[in-house]
Amino acid sequence: MRAYLLDQPNRSFAADDLRRFGVYHWHLPLAASEGEIARIKRDRGYVEQDEVSLSKETPNLEDICAKFDKEHYHTLDEVRFVVDGEGNFDVRDSNDQWVRIEVDAGDLIIIPANKYHRFYLTAAKKIRCVRLFLNNEGWAPLYRQAEVAKA
After folding, report:
1. How far, in Å, CA of 138 to CA of 10, rounded?
2. Whole-number Å distance between alpha carbons of 142 and 60
3. Could you tell me the CA-to-CA distances from 140 to 72, 74, 113 in Å, in that order?
4. How do residues 87-117 score in pLDDT, each as one tens digit?
5. Which of 8, 77, 80, 128 could form a disulfide linkage to 53, CB 3.0–4.6 angstroms apart?
6. With contact defined as beta carbons under 8 Å apart, do 86 and 129 qualify?
7. Rounded to an integer, what distance in angstroms lies between the CA atom of residue 81 and that of residue 5?
8. Are the beta carbons of 14 and 99 closer than 8 angstroms?
9. How far apart, in Å, are the Cα atoms of 64 and each of 48, 50, 128?
């Protein structure tokens, strides 16, 4: 994981810095990840998991990615454990500045409910993640900033 202010790439953030504005990150060894994911599920109350994979071969990849590349939030935590590939999460910090969090294999990230963020694939256009959920329905509703402004 590499995290930094989007407009100041030399200003980096460690996992403890991310925690200050609610984002959690761990780097897990892939070989031991099942036990660690089980512990995180138990400790944080996640009850369901699945796996998602995106690549250049994914049908309608651009349309799928367009759902997540604009500022939005979910009413439940967004949890991703990267098994393979890489991606970028942009998250607003406590000062309303964008922090880019680059994740790759072994990174587990939790973006808390109601935290504005967006997601991009890197130029490699490949990521495979385990997703954890707080309910058995899986996906949390997605709200864009423009939708919130109308309310």
Report:
1. 37
2. 19
3. 12, 6, 9
4. 999 999 989 999 999 999 999 999 999 999 9
5. 128
6. no
7. 22
8. no
9. 22, 17, 14
Residue 143 contacts residue 72 (beta carbons within 8 Å): yes
Whole-model pTM? 0.89
CA distances from 32 to 6, 36, 83 (A): 32, 7, 12
Tokens of 107: 């990174």
* Residue whose pair of structure tokens reads 């980096």 in the numeric block: 12
What pLDDT is attached to residue 63? Answer: 94
Going by C-alpha positions, the residue among 112, 77, 108 that lies closest to residue 94 is 112
φ and ψ at residue 14, rounded to 5 degrees: -95, 170
Torsion from C-alpha of 64, 24, 17, 54, nearest 10 degrees? -20
